[in-house]
Amino acid sequence: MGKIRTSLKAIGENWSMTQRVYRFLWAEVLGIFILVVAAIAVPVSLFINWLTAVLIALPLGLLAATFWFSRRATRAAYARIEGQPGAAAAVVESLRGKWAVTPAVAISRNEDMVTRVVGKPGVVLVSEGSPSRVGHMLANERKKTARWVPDIPIYEIQVGNEEGQIALGQIQKTLSKLPRNLRGSEVTEVRRRLEALGNVQQSMPIPKGPMPTSPRQVRRQRR
User: What is d(CA 158, CA 83) in angstroms, rounded to the nearest whole number?
Assistant: First the structure.
C-alpha cells in the first residue's frame, strides 16, 4: 500500500505541474481516451460483440491517454527549466542510456555553459548560451579534450532558440542519431582519461570573485 500511495502522490504532483503549463490537460486526456475507445469499440462490436469491444477498447484508450499525458508532462518539464542556467545539463543527466555527464566543464560570466557527455558516439560537448559567445568556449574545450583523447570523435551540440541551435526537447533525439563509434570498454577508458582532466582543472588555482568557475562550485551553488 505504501508504494501505491507514493506512486499516486507522484502522479498527482506531475499532473498539477503539467496542468500549470497546459490548462486544458484534463480535456485533452479525456478526449484522447474517448476517441480511441470509440474508434476501437464500434468496429469490434459490429464484427464480434459489445463485451469484447469494451474489454479491448478500454485498456487501449487508457494506454493512449497515459501516453499523451506523459508527452505533455515531459514538455511541461522542459518549459519550466528552459532559459535557466544548467537546463541542458539537467536534461542530459536525466536521459536514458549510458551517458557519463560532467556539467559545467566551462562556464562564463554570462552563465553560458559547456557540458561534457561521454557515450558510445564518443565525446559530445553540449553548450547553452548565445552562439556568438559559446563558439569559442566549445573550441577551447574541444582542444583540451582532444589532447587527452586524440583518437576519439568529438561532437558539438548547441542548445538554445537561435539559428543553428536545438531545443531542450530535441537533445535526446540528437544524441540518439549520432553514430556508435565506441564499445563499452572504450567508453570506460575515455571516461577515465577525462576524469583525470577534470582533476587537473580542479587542482588549478581559482580566481576570487562571485562567479563560480569550476564544475564543483556550480553544482554546490545549485544546491
Answer: 13
CA gap 198, 218 in Å, rounded: 14
Q: Identify which of 91, 158, 101 has the alpha carbon closest to the alpha carbon of residue 130.
A: 158
pTM attached to this predicted model:
0.66
Tell me the helix, strand and coil percentages in the chain, rounded to 5: 60, 15, 25
Q: In one letter, which amino acid is 128?
A: E
Closest CA to 102 of 116, 82, 92, 120: 116
The predicted-structure confidence for 116-164, as pLDDT tens digits, reads as follows: 999 999 999 999 888 888 889 999 999 999 989 889 999 999 988 888 8
> 132: Cβ–Cβ under 8 A, 6 or more apart, which residues?
none
